[in-house]
Amino acid sequence: MSVKKVILTAAVTGAVHIPSMSPYLPITPEQIIDEAVAAYHAGAAVVHLHTRNPGTGQPTGDPELMRRVVEGIRAQCDVVIGCTTGGAIGMTNEERLAALPVAKPELASCNAGSVNFCFAPIADKIKKPLFDWEIPFVKNTYQVPFANTFKDIEEYIALMNQYGTKPEFEIYEVGMLSNVAYFLKRGMLKAPVYLQFVTGVMGGIPANMDNLLFLLNTAIRVLGEGNFVWSCAAAGKEQFDITTAAMIQGGNVRVGLEDNLYIARGKLAKSNAEPIAKMVRIANELGREIAAPDEARAILGI
Q1: What's the whole-number mean pLDDT along residues 204-216?
Q2: Which of 64, 232, 246, 281 has the fewest CB atoms inside 10 Å of its own CB, making it the most exposed?
Q3: Cβ atoms 51, 120 nearer than 8 A
Q4: Which candidate, 80, 87, 43, 44, places its Cα nearest to that of 65?
Q5: Higher pLDDT, 121 or 3
Q6: Distance of CA 64 to the CA centre of its chain
Q7: What is the pLDDT of residues 87-137, one digit of tens each?
Q8: Is the distance from CB of 163 to CB of 139 less than 8 angstroms?
Q9: DSSP letters along 66-130, please?
């Protein structure tokens, strides 16, 4: 589904990168709030939120921390708030869903299938970790899958429907589109469904142009053109190339420190506002207009 206005999402902190990788990774609720608001002012219509232990930076599903973050952002701007239900690899479903009834976000990630979401090679790059939890945490992803069964997905959708939250389906592999189509056919979802193509994760579909078109064309065939809105994220160095290609194809874009700590080769991004501002510049060159939050709500059917 092509739209002229492009929705920019800032994925603020995530649950993959560790504090030892960048001093600019937001950790405390106050830092996450400030980063989300700065991304909004740079052009983001949506912010995608995780929380971390404010003392150590370790990802957490603590609903009180998410409540503080969401309320702090809402007090300063009208950006569309999306909360994770992916949490971190190894969390239980209860931990991953705990913040949803408390934060009641407009959007929440809904992972559309199981995948080997591995980022263990990070451990090879960190010689002196800042915290004891970091290296065991990333190494654990080498042996623990990111499990999202059909039963899990059904429960997540049902809870989101209960709280008026629109699912944002994270698509790590092309077969996951069939999973979304199943729940749409069952009547648990209302069109347009929202798809986030997450490319470049070790264990998922690689971030390249062929795969982006494969995902898009398969979504059209499986879901039907007009029944979905799509966005694209890419992990690591391919981020800006693939998200630019997504904009050319009429899609929306997710960038931010969750997906890529760098703003250019060898140069760390100092804030989430930097990659959002970069995508605004690229969008302007491509003739794509930037969606404001209310325009994003209309496009997404929130």
Answers
A1: 97
A2: 281
A3: no
A4: 87
A5: 121
A6: 21
A7: 888 899 999 999 999 999 999 999 999 999 999 999 999 999 999 999 999
A8: no
A9: HHHHHHHHHTT--PEEEE-SS-STT--HHHHHTTHHHH--SEEEEE-S-B--B-TTHHHH-SS-S
- pLDDT recorded at residue 69: 98
Query: Considering only CA atoms, which of 276, 254, 282 is closest in space to residue 41?
Result: 276
- Residue 7 above 60 pLDDT? yes
Give burial (CB, 10 Å; 0-12/13-18/19+) of 202: middle
Structure tokens at 125: 């790059």
The distance from CA 8 to its chain's CA centroid, rounded to whole angstroms, is: 11
Q: Are 29 and 55 in contact (CB under 8 A)?
A: no
How long a stretch of residues is the chain? 302
CB-based contacts of 127, cutoff 8 Å, min separation 6: none
Strand partners, 131: none
Note if the bond before 59 is cis, omega within 30 degrees: no
The pTM assigned to this predicted structure is: 0.96
Token pair for 139 = 């190494």
Q: Where are the alpha helices (DSSP H) in 194-272?
A: 209-223, 239-248
> Strand 193-199 and strand 5-6: pairing?
unpaired
Residue closest to 67 by CA, chosen among 100, 106, 107: 100
pLDDT of residue 87: 85
Pairing relationship of beta strands 252-255 and 228-234 according to DSSP bridges: parallel
